[in-house]
What we know:
155 residues, alpha+beta, 2 helices, globular
Amino acid sequence: MPPNRNSRRWEVRRDGSSWRDSASQQCHDDLDGLLNLTLRFAQQMLEKRGEFYPFGAAMSTGGESRLLGGGPRRDTTAAALPMLVDGLRRDRADFRAVAICSHVRLPDSDAVRVNLEHHEGQAVHFVVPYNNEGLSRGVEYGEPRRGTPFRQVWT
Length: 155
């Protein structure tokens, strides 16, 4: 395998490869777009409310991205995530890619967790620490960390 030329160190696996090595350009674009969309929305909610509820995002088969809620109740508990995943599974024929975004607590900070999945088979999981102590400055994201990917929608 050729050496990975990915400038995003946090996307590179221990063996030096990246999910991008085996993904199509459309998959790159779809997952990058959903990652940016979910991180922007989480940041807006953190700056506005100091918290955010689990939510999703999807790239339609026509290439349009949109945000998705977990259900009629705004629930910060783990109960909202299964509802969100069930809805994405049910509607997956309408999507090329999906993202599931939730809050997690790391030993050293709070973080935004984003699970990304593409119908081509790619699954990527990122955890992005954030600092919102100085709310007058807004939320500041730290260096993303790659998590262990797992498929939930196209299983």
